[in-house]
Amino acid sequence: MSKASFKVVDFGVTKYGDKAKKFILKGAGGVVLEVSDYGGKVVRLFTPDRDGKLKDVVVGFDSPAGWDNGDPYWGALIGRYGNRIAKGQFKMDGKTYKLPALNNAPAGIGCNLHGGARGWDAYVWGAKPFVKGDNVGVVFTHTSPDGDEGFPGKVEIKVTYTLTAKNVWRVDYEAVPDKKTPINMTQHVYFNFKGESGGTIEDHILKIPASKTTPTDAGQIPTGKLAKVDGTPFDFRKGMRIGEHINDKNEQLEFGRGYDHNWVLDKGEMALGKKARGKMNFAAELFCPLNGRFVKIYTTEPCIQMYSANWADYNQTAKGGEHLSFRCGCALETQHAPDSPNQPKWPTTFIAAGEKYKTTTEFRFGAR
Asked: Which residues 6+ apart lie within 8 Å of 78 measured at CB?
């Protein structure tokens, strides 16, 4: 076992004129994680295959320009509200709050996506790297002002990335608002265990312990109903190759050009109620039979969104000049359900003034 360590290097300047840095975290177990203070973005992640060979297994870019000139969410911290809010508005305590709704509009149906026109992913955060025993990581901090992208309340945020000797990347989210406001944070890392230029992830095997999903309309906004996965392309309970049914004739798949949906975890709060709140539960496993790499995801969140990069194209150039391609990565975003502020029967995402929002997700890497 090697010694945990970190290195800090310059990473370039964002389109907003902010200087970004990159933190190279070398874990005692062998995994290497490179992240930026520019929205907590994951730049590189090296994990070993079944023969012990390290390879970068995430989609990212060599500088902030990669994110600034294309899809900004690859590998980023997402907030104030991850995923979609219908029509870019919600009602809270009798008042309607209006948010930007032009940044995502499939089928011409607008919504607020991932925090708005400039979400938390688009800021350079405060960052303090650390080594504590066999753990290495970075503590990221950010302040979101009252009225930020239309959301009420100033929010003080702290997100801690920790890489352990057991090759676990843990993400601890904390946030405290000074006014009641919805908060739903996640991490938007995209995995491809064949490597960033390895082509489609359709050959990866995915397991999700979820009996239900939240089906959407053509704008990919949840309808408010729950749908059983039995007998559908969405049944990943026993593990299934992502490409097995991704091209089936299915209205939900047609809306997203593939998978871009929210699964309700069987042991999460949305399924079991408040007694499940705060407990770490298995949420997903992604496995590549070709080289044996896998990640097991555990979370305190009640849901997980799987997105198979159905909108990626060759116009985006990733690290080392490699061009992104259709379905080149798999994002597994732990979260509360999309549009929860407009779905009062679902677990709330409203956080009261002075209340601490706190969630944890672990990515446990290995090979077999």
From this structure: 114, 115, 119, 120, 121, 185, 186, 187, 188, 333
Rounded-to-integer distance, Cα 307 and Cα 30, Å? 28
Task: Out of 149, 301, 333, 362, pick the active-site residue.
Answer: 333
Distance CA 143, CA 120 (A): 9
pLDDT digit of tens for each residue in the chain (368 aa)?
789 999 999 999 999 999 999 999 999 999 999 999 999 999 999 999 999 999 999 999 999 999 999 889 999 999 999 999 999 999 999 999 999 987 677 888 999 999 999 999 999 999 999 999 999 999 999 999 999 999 999 999 999 999 999 999 999 999 999 999 999 999 999 999 998 888 899 999 999 999 999 999 999 999 999 999 999 999 999 999 999 999 999 999 999 999 999 999 999 999 999 889 999 999 999 999 999 999 999 999 999 999 999 988 767 888 988 888 899 999 999 999 999 999 999 999 999 999 999 999 999 999 99
Q: Which one of the listed residues 114, 142, 188, 204 is annotated catalytic?
A: 188
Give the Cβ contact number of residue 358 at 10 Å.
14
> Cα angle at 252 between 81 and 331, to 5 degrees?
45
Q: What residue ranges define each of the domains in the chain, with the CATH number in brackets?
A: 5-367 (2.70.98.10)
Handedness of CA 39, 33, 184, 243 (dihedral sign): positive
Tell me whether residue 204 is one of the annotated catalytic residues.
no
Determine phi and psi for 207, rounding to 5 degrees.
-125, 130
Phi/psi for 271 (5° steps) reads: -95, -40
- Alpha-carbon gap, residue 243 to 227, rounded angstroms: 21
pTM recorded for the entire structure: 0.98
Verify whether residue 333 is a known catalytic residue.
yes
Q: Are 186 and 67 in contact (CB under 8 A)?
A: no
